[in-house]
Structure formats: structure tokens, C-alpha cells
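Appendix B. Chain record.
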Amino acid sequence: METVFPETLMIRRQKWIVGLLAVVLLIIGVMLFFSHKPTHYEVRKDLSIYFQNADDVIVSVREALRRHDRKITISYQSHGNNMEDIGALVRDLMQYAMDETNNPTEGDYIYQQYGGYDLNYHYTEKNGIYCYTLEITPNYYTTLEQEAQVSEKLKEVLESFHFTRYTSDYEKVRTIYDYVYSHVSYDEIHKKNTNYRPKLTAYGALIYQRAVCQGYAVLMYRMLRESGITARVITGKAWSDKGEEVHAWNLVCIEGLYYNLDVTWDKQTESEKYFLKSDDGFEGHERDPEFRTDNFYQAYPMAEWDYPASTEILD
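C-alpha cells predicted for this chain:
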């Protein structure tokens, strides 16, 4: 294993004839944290450059996103012109940085509350050495102060549930579902306002108690993860008597199997028609392609039948 220094990482440039050439990557303003096992980076052989210790870089970018850093700056030197591959390289880094971990404030919680990024880059060349500077500017839907409010409120709410080590997965899911169902209303006022971001966030759902489907799903995700329940935010299409719409809901794990849960539509229909359903029992929903792959279903095995849940909704 290569020794990694606090602000200096190594990358390699792939050469078609003589193999690999080591170069130096310097990350400015991004500290390394190793509290979670990093996602393993798969080297793309179609790019002219890749990170020798990309896993460490991914952890750094993930932590920068969690901190809501306004700009992530990466500088490195290379014995070649890599400009054509920089866009793809940064896309891979950002995708891996938002992969799932066991941290409730990472994974889907980051991905579903940010609107992409702007990328600027430039280089200088001297004696065949290319010095690159990449500047990534993420577009966050919330501020760090708002996230602090969410964490403080969630601590209060989750403590009020009095979960113990004896509380079952179903009881946790049921309690959290009931809370969100009872406390969050659909944001009809801002539904069509594309510039109003709180409706898409856990902040809007928890603090303002108004959100659209994405905000509902992100709040469910955060609360479930904080309570030790594995969950995902699923995006796709949905059909109702109003027609087709882009939609978001949750996958929830109970006793090793996954169920669909759509608290948004349950709240709107004043029912539990979409609570802990198998794929066959989850009418009117179609996942986006990335959530329908064999690999995804292998990672998140679905229950064959709906969960036999109570229909009582708590106040």
C-alpha cells in the first residue's frame, strides 16, 4: 500500500506503448478523512490518465461535498496533454464520491440535494511538463447552516421515538413513515417553481414541513439511515389519474429484503397503498434504468411479496 501524505497524492498516466508513468496530484483545500471505507475506483482504460490512489481522492471529494465546500481545487502535473479526458475523469470522481456508504449524510443524501457542478480547468506547459488546475464548483440545494438545523431537529425527533436495540426493523420503518406522513404536506405552492430548492430537500420537508416527492424521499432516507435501516432514494416515472410524472420514492430494508415505499403518494391519496410493497405490488411506478440493472437487484434484493403491515396511521 502506498504511503499518502496529507495534501499530496499520486496518480498515473496510462501510456499506450511503455505502460504507466507516475505523476503527482496535489489537492488544495481538501483534507483527507478515513472514517469510512472508500468506494473502490475502477480504472477506465479508455482514458489517458487515472489516479493511482483514486480511492483516497474520492474520500476527499466526498468530505468536501459534505462540508459544502464552495470550490474543490485539484492540481497535478503530467508528462502529457490530458484535456480531452478531464471532463470524464471529473464525472467519474463525482459519481464515486456520491456512492452509498453507511453514513446517513452521504450517498443519496448528497446526490439528491445537489444540482450538478461547474468545471473550470487550465494548464501551463514547460519543457514537456503540463501543470493542470481543476476547479469544481458544486451546486448545493441547501446551505451548511440549514443542514445543521436538520441535524439538530432530527436528533430531537429521533430521540422522541425511544428506539432501542430491541426495536425491530419494521417498527422503526413504521414509526418514521408515520412521522413523515403526519408532519409533511405536499408543496403545491412551489411545485412548478424550478428555482425553489427547499421543496427538494430534507430541510424543506423537516423544517418547513412542505416538500415534493424528492424532499419526502430524502427525509425518509436520512431518518431511516440514522436509525440503522438501509434505504435508498429511487427515481423514475410514475403514472396516476393526472398522467405521467417524474417521481422519487424509497427502497427500505427489513430483515434482509427490500420493499418499495412511497410516502408522498400515500399522503396525497390518504392511504397506505404504497407502503412496503414488492415490485409486483407497486403499481404505477417505473424505476430509472440505473435502478433496474442486475447488479442493482443483486445489491438490493427485493421481497417477493408485500410486507404484511398494519394499516394504522399514528398522529
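Further analysis of this model is presented in Appendix C.
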